[in-house]
Amino acid sequence: MRNGEPTVSSDELITRGDMRTERVDIPCPVCGAENMLLTSIVLDLPYIGECLETTISCEKCGYRHSDTLITAQKQPVRYTMAVEEEKDLKARVVRSTSGTIRIPEAGLKVEPGTASEAFISNIEGVINRFEEAVGFALRNAEDDDKRRRAEEILDFLSGVRDGRERCTVIIEDPLGNSAILADKVREEILSPEEAEKLALGMNVIDLRG
């Protein structure tokens, strides 16, 4: 459980298959130790289907990185959901490592990068993640304009959670491995041109407005 949001390890969400662990001949990115451990397990996610969860870890320094991949091949897709009332916050969100999440009303966007991880959450959990990122940016803001912008975003996100504000949550995935699961969601197939425009940059919160 992370900030009240369900994760891929919740027994209520998944059925686990056989677990496999092996040593792989790659160095740890933190301490450089060789022969890291790779653990993989097949998951059956309701509404999503079969996925592969992998975890690579270092016994020497404790470094750990997990990823969840949806094994089915799908078309590039966009999911759009208007968050207008409290129950919308509970809509299930599946974000793969290739998914981009946007809240356009706040100018927020998280793009996949080399350190991004897949997760299963809900709309409220996505808002929590944005709040953490903006809070970090606020604490490290170098001028008043950026601090003011961060405070405005945090107030807006708080308003979405308590019903004072409305927003739109958009997930785009060129590999089709992300989704928002709710009756009111609009699902669209992306054109090849739209899919190609999706960035693969680092996770950055832009406070320039």
Topology:
Blueprint: E1 15-24, E2 36-45, E3 49-57, E4 64-70, E5 77-83, E6 92-95, E7 100-103, E8 108-110, E9 119-122, H1 123-139, H2 144-162, E10 167-173, E11 179-181, E12 186-189, H3 192-197
Antiparallel strand pairs: 1-2, 2-3, 3-4, 5-10, 5-12, 6-9, 6-11, 7-8, 7-10
CATH superfamily of the largest domain: ZPR1, A/B domain
Kindly report the average pLDDT value.
Answer: 83
Percent of residues in β-strands: 25-35%
Please summarize the sheet with the most strands: 5 strands, antiparallel
Shape annotation: globular
CATH topology annotation of the largest domain:
Jelly Rolls
Which structural class do the helices and strands define? alpha+beta
CATH architectural group of the largest domain: Sandwich
How much helix, percentage-wise, in residues?
10-25%
Please trace the helix and strand order, writing H or E for each element. Answer: EEEEEEEEEHHEEEH
